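The instructor's notes for this session suggest beginning with a concrete chain rather than abstract definitions. Hand out the sequence below and ask the class to guess, before any prediction is shown, which regions might be ordered.
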Amino acid sequence: MENYVSNLMAEVKAKNPNEVEFHQAVQEVVESLTLVMDRNPRYRKAKVLERIIEPERVIMFRVPWQDDNGEIHVNRGFRIQMNSAIGPYKGGLRFHPTVNLGILKFLAFEQVFKNALTTLPMGGGKGGSDFDPHGKSDAEVTRFCQAFMCELFRHIGPDTDVPAGDIGVGAREIGFLFGMYKRLKNEFTGVMTGKGLTWGGSVIRPEATGYGAVYFAEEMLKTRKEDLKGKTALVSGSGNVSQYTIEKLITLGAKPITVSDSTGYILDEEGISREKLSFVMDLKNVRRGRISEYADKFKGAVFTPVNPKLDHNPLWDHKAECAFPSATQNEINGKDAANLLKNGVYVVCEGANMPTNIDGVNQFLDAKILFGPGKAANAGGVATSGLEMAQNSMRIRWTREEVDARLFNIMKTIHEVCARTAEKYGTPGNYVNGANIAGFVKVADAMMDQGLV
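After discussion, reveal the predicted structure:
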């Protein structure tokens, strides 16, 4: 089996050179799946894993647009349609300067397993552009989104591919994208999720990823007869995921003490209260300012700017019991993981996609802490997108209480499935193996049923 893993990874790296994030995502899954391949040689014979690793379709296109000064810019647009074995492609669009093919393939690959875990009929996809919406006027963002959709509309649809938001794509961008799709296709369909509440969106969608991560952490703690009340939590990021992670932590009696953006992080040892969270939401969602303003507003809070010379992120070097990495991929390295463990953290629940590198993951698993990997812990966002699709199809709208209850039950089910699967395959408490195996088996069985697809 060791040769199988090494040969498969060598092939992946040869076919996809320089796509290091994609290699990392595949390696983590492949290592978990050795347990499955030993028991189910039919998967190896049918090369199901090799087929899942290869996207069904990769779409790349140019996006020319004009800024407010009349200057023309050209960005790249992407859509990775990874796997549709259990439903239409589903996954967000990311607008950020770091976007490239390798990052989107890693995100799409993760999305396949995450969506399978939600219990909803959704395949996996991801897309976006290297366009940076920060610092752009509403008119410039509108023109870019319209230009982007002028190509993307050919490849998506409510029964084919249903994009959502991601980093850099919030309610504003979803609105501009959907408006252009409707104009081009002359139809009002549930082609995107994350829509406004007055035109097909679902309540709880902005909150869902953060709420879901906290629900998953609470379920992990229940296995030790504990809960979040009174626990100190480190949270990274300051977008939707971190904002609503903090909100739900406060509701459940925990004390979040950090928040961050690309310029640095805030440490507030008194705890981030609802009043302080409201300030962060206004700062980031309305004024689009920098998190350093938090320290100017609230006495006792300390802002630490990013220092690229450091080999670790000091945000993860504070006393706490819980950590919720909610910013971006690979924000926790081996040194960060060691600092978290040293400072007493024994619950790590990933709100972002693959925020911990392989060294960090292995340290958490070796220490036998409660570690919720992103494809399980942050599945609440796409789960609620799936609930939005269901509401669109039925032309109805559920209440906040109904959606939140469904979200909670989905996260509870994901936890149960991951825990049960990990135990079945001889690694109790290992949610990484549980998530990877449970997601794979569902997709693999569907592919086997459908023939050579």
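Then share the key points. The radius of gyration is 21 Å. Residues 66 and 72 are 4 Å apart (CA to CA).
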